[in-house]
Specification:
The protein is mainly alpha-helical. Among the domains are: about 315-385, no CATH class; about 465-595. It has helices at about 5-10, 35-60, 90-95, 100-115, 120-135, 140-155, 160-180, 190-195, 200-215, 215-230, 235-245, 245-250, 255-270, 275-285, 290-305, 315-325, 335-340, 365-375, 385-405, 405-415, 425-440, 445-455, 460-470, 480-495, 510-520, 525-540, 545-560, 560-575, 580-590.
Amino acid sequence: DKLAVLQTLASTVKRDPTAAHYMFPDDPYLMPKNAANFRLFALSKESGINAAKFIIKQFPQYFDKISVEPDVPCFMPEILTPQIEGVSEEALKERIHLRRVKESVDLFDQLVQAGTPVSLETTNSLLDLLCFYGDGESTQEKEEEAKKEEAKEDLEEPGVNASEQKAPKRQFRRGLQSSGPRWRENNNAERIFRIMPERNAHSYCTMIRGMVKHGAFVQAYDMYIDLLNERHKADVHTFNALISAVPHLKDRFLERWALAKDFLNHMAQQEVQPNLLTFNAVLKTLRRCGGLGRNMSLLVIKEMEALGIEPSLATYEHLLFMFYRGVEIHPSGIISDVLADVEKRSFTPQDPDDGRDFNCCDLKDIKLAYQLNKAMEKGDNWKFLSMDRLNIYWSKFFSLLCMMEQIDVVLKWYKEMSCSLFYPSPKNILDLLQALDAANHLESIPSVWEDIKQMGFSRRPELLEELLSLMSREQHPDEIQQAFAKCAEDIKAVHEQSGREQVQLEWTGSTLGCIALLFARAGRTQDAWYVNMMERFQQINRIPTDQVLDGFWNCAKQTNCPDEAIKLVKLAASLGLPASQRLKSRTEEEFELSEKQK
């Protein structure tokens, strides 16, 4: 293995929990702070790479003097323009190799009209191209066609604003492309197949696979019957395609399983050895067979073991889907057996469905989640998840930790994962705050608030309300109260921020009350009164709670400030609060008031 030395060296390096993903430069200003930044930065980088590739492809003549050592062909500009001119089979082969669908069909028709015979191998290659693209155009041809149409539009309507003219048409084209190519009747693939003087098994198999890929399931089955009538044998890939089409050919569960078994029997009769994709196609069909599928799936797994075929991630995913797809189905212990097998192996991609949906965190079982996490960290298994899905996985895993684990373990995972393995969402932060509350570990809230500011979530009302509610609920030691007051000061500053691109946050009664209470408990009476209570409550017509009034009154008592207590009584009376009489009585009893103050 050419990479053996590099892989050995890489295995000696551990992940740095303080570093961002390796795709980003080691620069604080260029590292993402949250999931939205991560996606934006990653897409921007890929966009730049694609733009560079586009320039090289469009203007290869300017990149003909590139010399590198060692020469890596995949990094070199591709030759995308035909080099062979004229009407010949060699020119047709070149255009097929360049994936020029329309030009290949036109050249084939010219050869047929000129009476020039085209070999069976070349015709089959053309069928491969047509069936792959569904008789549509390749990506390069679509781009060239779009440019021609835009240039034609510019010439036809020069007086119309370009952006106004093209936008609706581009949007319409994009809508057509997103729907994907479908199999049209009497398309070029079918036409060329009918006029072929000679057809072999490859010709039939290509047509069947193309029809299945592009949704013509009934035509594919009819083509398979024609293949049998011509006494040809299908290959394993064709049988895999036919088995995957079974749910579209039959409606009843028993009929689907019977047809799938028929294809498997035909494979045995034609001495076609099944592979991993064959069994995955069977399991994918059984996913749509209800309870019958669950019963038969275990027999399929046993047959795989008998043939010595190791399951892929898609195999396990199909199996778990059948046993855990509905809440009405009683959970079985099969997931433990699956994870016991998965965590021992380092997988390689073998099926397009590998790693598509493999998550145990929704089962609310921390032991299974740890097993799955161990399996994911085995070798290169984590590479099966895209960056977005990897972040979703870690987000679910962390939420489960907050729900099920001890707070020390939660904080350890949070420190190692945050902004390294994943970027916490506002829901993850709420889960963490609830875990801190449940464990009576509220002294960690100030550090969580610093993370919230760094992640750009400091203007999320739900987070601010939860933070203030937890900090102001009970009295804490003075050191913690001072830290809470600092957080309250930051939150007050966030509410007072205003700018062209920011909508000012709306003050609520609970927010005002909590901030005032935190200031009062920290002995910052002036901040509590003049900045929050007297001005804000009256300005925005909000009502302070009894807890806020009592907290501020206690602060005035501790600092022996009767003037502040009197102001509080006047505020309560002006707002018509029932607590005004109680506060008045307490002020008269517990403060030594002058005649003027009375």
